[in-house]
Design a protein that fits this description.
The complex is a heterodimer of chains A (288) and B (271).
Chain A: E1 4-13, E2 21-27, E3 30-31, E4 36-40, H1 47-54, E5 62-67, E6 70-71, H2 79-85, E7 86-89, H3 102-106, H4 108-112, H5 117-130, H6 147-159, E8 165-169, H7 177-194, E9 197-201, H8 205-211, E10 214-219, E11 222-228, H9 229-233, H10 236-241, H11 248-258, H12 269-287
Parallel strand pairs in A: 4-9, 4-10, 7-8, 8-9
Antiparallel strand pairs in A: 1-2, 1-3, 1-5, 5-6, 10-11
Helix pairs in contact in A: 5-6
Chain B: H1 22-38, H2 42-59, H3 63-72, H4 74-85, E1 92-96, E2 99-102, H5 103-129, H6 132-143, H7 153-183, H8 193-224, H9 243-265
Antiparallel strand pairs in B: 1-2
Helix pairs in contact in B: 1-5, 1-9, 2-5, 2-9, 3-5, 4-5, 6-7, 7-8
The chains are: A alpha/beta (288), B mainly alpha (271).
Chain lengths: 288, 271
Amino acid sequence: MPVIETKNLTYTYGEGTPFCKTAVENVNISIEKGEFIGVIGHTGSGKSTFIQQLNGLLKPTKGQVLLNGKDIWEEPKKIRDVRFKVGMVFQYPEHQLFEETVIKDISFGPGNMGLDSEEIKRRACAAADFVGLKEELLSKSPFELSGGEKRRVAIAGVIAMDPDVLILDEPTAGLDPRGRDVLLSQIVSYHKVRHNTVLLVSHSMEDIARTADKVLVMNSGHVKMFDSTEKVFARDRELEEIGLRVPEITKIMSVLKNKGYPVDTVLTVEEAIKQLLPILGKGGKKHG
Amino acid sequence: MVRDITLGQYFPGKSFIHRLDARVKILLTFVYIVFIFIASNFQGLLTMTALVFTVLLLSGVPIKQYFKSLKAILFVIIFTSVLNLFYGSGQVVWQWGFMQITTGGISNAIFITIRIVSLILFSSVLTFTTSPTDLTDALERIMKPLKVFHIKVHEIAMMMTIALRFVPTLLEETDKIMSAQKARGADLESGGLMQRVKALIPILIPLFVSSFRRAYDLAMAMECRCYHGGEGRTKMKILHATGRDAVAVFATFIVCSAVVWCSLYFPAALR
């Protein structure tokens, strides 16, 4: 059974006013448990509106969101329970920090779940560990930390709720290259250890290519593609048409393929090297 | 949601009222407010009401919008008129214990209601037909003489402009922070008063932090563009008073004279 399924999901802003705008229209997808899904689409394609409906922050104008087979709006009073199961990390999440100490801020989510203090502490420490926060930082004020550290605290605050589905909206925006790499690999290893479902929204095709099993492409409120990462990035022409692109290395290899070299769609530099070395080796022999 | 609150009330347009000099509009609104309190009887008051409705029609803003602005203060209107019902002399119409309604009370209640409604409608015309920038610009110009008393007029006007500019930004920010905390299970809707106040902390603290950050960034950006206060600063749009403004001033003058004449000639209405 899919962990999240949407049926004819439609969301219209300002319905009934002259300014109404349909941001998401007729989205039908199903996400299996344990999948790592990349969500791409240019600005204004309806990504944010779509993901905010998955945890009940926005109520669909039409259609349904099923979580483990159950409509999340069946009992509107229990929508908070849905938000604990579908954790959401917003863009620039460091702006939401408010507690006196880092550990207290991470504990805010689990605290709202009504767990006992032992369990809250255990979860908060585990979450801090996942995002690589050093123990001595935990008793500091979150406002004393660096930008990257603040971001980790905010992400840990959502991970600490131990959600079945974790949604991250551009978690690496504004971080330096090293910070990006570290944060992404932490998210991947978190996904491997907990076996939960992750949705990663990103504008960096490289990030998506490195992490996701499947890619959801959104364009003007519709689902344009939803397939395995290789298959989606093999359609580079179509992606460029809607203002997106494929990772640089994928592009290079696709150009080579079109020129008749025996290579396949690749997503990372490592894969490309594996395919290119034998060809270069042969070439080297010929000329050598 | 928070975003639904309308604050920018300006309705762009090209009507006679829109094209009046903002300074003239502010001064005339002030004059109107003074004279609505000078009008002491129904004759004078109705003259003022006639003026306000003429201006409403001239402004070209949908009348519905004006009534929306009345709705916001409906409670104040009802409260004052009900209170006034019980004051005043004259024939007793209704009595229950120590409370009694007299004919004078009823007339007072009607009088006060018309007064408040006209007042609100006239000031709505000002905010509906003048853009916030023009408004602060005009205020700066009007308050210029206060410099003699070492009041920093330009700085005050600049602060008002910036404050108005950041209202929508902060509303958007509040919305975002609320969503983020709700996603962490913050419960903003239920619980008693104390619990609700406590539930605001996770929203207010990030909001304060971000306001300070924005203020700091804006100060930097202004300094980068060599802002150094009002001294020697020129304006791109200079306010001009024209013949149109003379007409408006003259019309108001006639109405006000009529009100003064009414209050001398007819007896006062409030008893």
